[in-house]
UniProtKB/TrEMBL annotation:
Per-repeat ranges for RCC: 58-101, 102-154, 155-206, 207-258
UniProt feature coiled coil, ranges: 720-759
Cellular component per GO, a single term: cytoplasm
Positions of the HECT domain: 621-857
Comp. bias (Basic residues): 1-17
Superkingdom in the source lineage: Eukaryota
GO molecular function, one term: ubiquitin protein ligase activity
Protein name, entry field: HECT domain-containing protein
Entry keywords, A to Z: Coiled coil, Repeat, Transferase, Ubl conjugation pathway
Amino acid sequence: MAGARQRQRQARRRRNGLRNAAPRGQPDAGERVQLEGEEEVRCSNCDETHILICSHDGKLYECWTTAPDKISKPRLVKELGNHDIVQIACGDHHSMALSRGGNLFTWGRNTHGQLGVGSQDPLISKPQLVKGLKGIPLAQIAAGGAHSVVVSLSGAVYSWGKNNFGQLGLGHTKDRGRPAYVEALEHWKAVFISCGADHTAVLSKDGLVYTFGAGGAGQLGHNSTRNELTPRVVAELWGARVSQVACGRQHTLVYVPSLDKVYSFGSYQGQLESERKANQLIPLPINSPVDNGKFCQENMSQNVIKTTAEGKESNIGLLFTKRNSYPLKGIATLERKEVNAWISNSSSEHWETIRKNIRLILSSEACINGSFLDKRGKHFRTSKEISGVDMAKVLRFYKKISKNEAVYQEVQKEINNLLPSLSSSPVSPENFRVYLILPFLLQQQNASSFCTLELLAEAILRLQQRDLQTLECLWSNLETNHFENLVVIFKRVSLYSLIQLFSYDFSEQYPQEIEALQILQILYQVNSRAGFKLQDNHFYIPKMAEIVHHFHSMGISLALLIKYPCIFDMKHKLLIHFLECNSLHFNTHPRLSNIFQKHWIFPVRRDCLLHDVWDHLRNAKNNQFTRFLKVCFAGEDGQGVGPRRELFTLAARVLCDPQSGVFCHFPSRLVWFPRQASSHGDTFLLVGTLCGMALYNHCQTPFPFPRALFKKMQDVEPTLEDLEELIPAVGRNLKNILKEESEDKLESLEMTFVQMEEGGSVVELKKNGANILVTKQNRKEFVDLYVNYVLNESIRKPFEDFMRGFLRGCPAETWKVFLPVELQVVLLVHTNYDWDLLKKVSVTSRVAFCCYAQVVC
């Protein structure tokens, strides 16, 4: 029997060309070592031609079959000499090793991408880091014939390599050269995986077994020989609560502890009990696996584990542990006892060991992500909506380390070193945990923590847009108290960043962005979309009046700040707009000392008001709009701001008269742009110019515009509520369409995707819209298209003219700092703002602020 097995192995080696495989070229790179002791973990491929040995101290060795029953002496894998290896796995011709620091390395044949490094090289003899799994805390690794599978601490499964039978569980048969997330298992927390030659088995936390891949020998247990491209539960084992699973080349074994039985399915030809010849398509119990050696060791699983605490020593257990035992050691994560030891022993002779442990965990994205898992859920709790982070655990860790300055500084230093290496394109939702965890570990209010938070802000802003949106979604799902704490953290670092600008050499380079403020503005937008968990005042940065004045006095453009409107209250927004307008007015024409020369003298006649205004605007040069207006009504002696304010009020009144025919008027008493504007010439260009001039000159123009206009001016998409404000009856009807529950009633209206214009003309809202009925399935699309047509598409030309004029009439960009509703109030509502008082407030507090800035810096 033994001789037959040797001949089979020799024939298989010749057939597969193992003498040319990756392991054969590896000995030259290693160092010949004689291992001593029994504290080691061994792993080999099915033919036992290549063996990995992990010593008790984490060193990795490998050896090869040089002749039948002859094995070379172990050689140290030098490339991994600086890594503490905790898990190993062998495929037919490739190897895997997981380090305690959370890094996965692979080497060997790569003909199907089984190394997961994205390389096209068919053979890679030296261990390579699998960058696609960087940051994901792995719990277990497994190698199949030419495919690889791993499971994370959260229970997520990733696979790559050969996929001709669907053994990757991705729903197709294309090979993968990089790790891919097995989405089909997202709602079933995996705790263990095992690979056969071309199939894979996954054990869930609830004791269910999922198999996929090659099924020709019945090894999937689904009572068929069909291949499965996605994970499918083994129905015959439903309710059995399996605790162990192991795959051979073409068969699968599972252990049910409640029955103390091993069940098997798959190919038995020359492998299991000799009396069984046919392939077993469903799980059936087998006799003791140590029955006179009838169970062939060649088909034992490479990687197995007991996943339940009730597992007991028995003959059954020998089936899984006789060869290639796999006591799973995990990656390094924070443990409560260890952290307590850091705090209590930091001043003792243990400090160097403590520093080493801190460096191991806090310099590793994977170890950080695996240290604060929310373990309350029964399934995989990480997605684009759920972070899987236990924030209470994060805060407890921060509270502990903040009590010991040496430990805190060491933690902060390692985080600081880690941040530049964070990927701009994470491969999994699990990668985003680090962005949620780190801000709460850097809460100390000192320059060192602020600088590290600035680096974190830079790392967040390096994310691709789709990934940043995922992070924003995770932020929005934080509990309100945690979200508020996050806002406070970035408010503090934003204030620090602003104060640092006062010592900046602007002659060399002008900063285009302030990263911490960008994050704060993004958090404000997240807060808005989430229904305003926090009121606006939670985002206001203190001492902004003094900061704005300081910027202004140093000659720093206030345009740098208007990108972040969330940090200002209304008073500060008015101040920043006032200062910028004044700066443009007095600095654009420095050679004109005469006050009348610095102003734009604007003579008009009351009986020809609009004619005179249009005439001035059409003939004006662009630089004239930077001057403040000095309005003179013909035959009157009025001086100051009174005539200027009156000019804009009278002009708006004339333009909004229905007899003028300029605007469309609605029962809501609001006006809107006409849908056919070709006959109006440059009217809306001039109207926009007039509105811009009013804002620049600190005046109001009481046009009864709806809020939709001010949203459009700030690039905010108008909504159904905005249409309802303008045309209440239409808005209510559209809302009723969205609420209607009866399909028959909705179809009886016989509405189609068209818009009826005045005069009976019809506009299709989409291609062939006249032939598309509005139903419950497409009514949301209909309403969105209707709103878009009325508030956007139908008035595109007049609105574009209006905006060109507005930007000409208001050369100061600080109007962008106002929210749409604020811009509506400032421009339309007659409110007397005490500009002089605002300026005095900023001047009187400047000295106190300078002292504060010196302290912070």
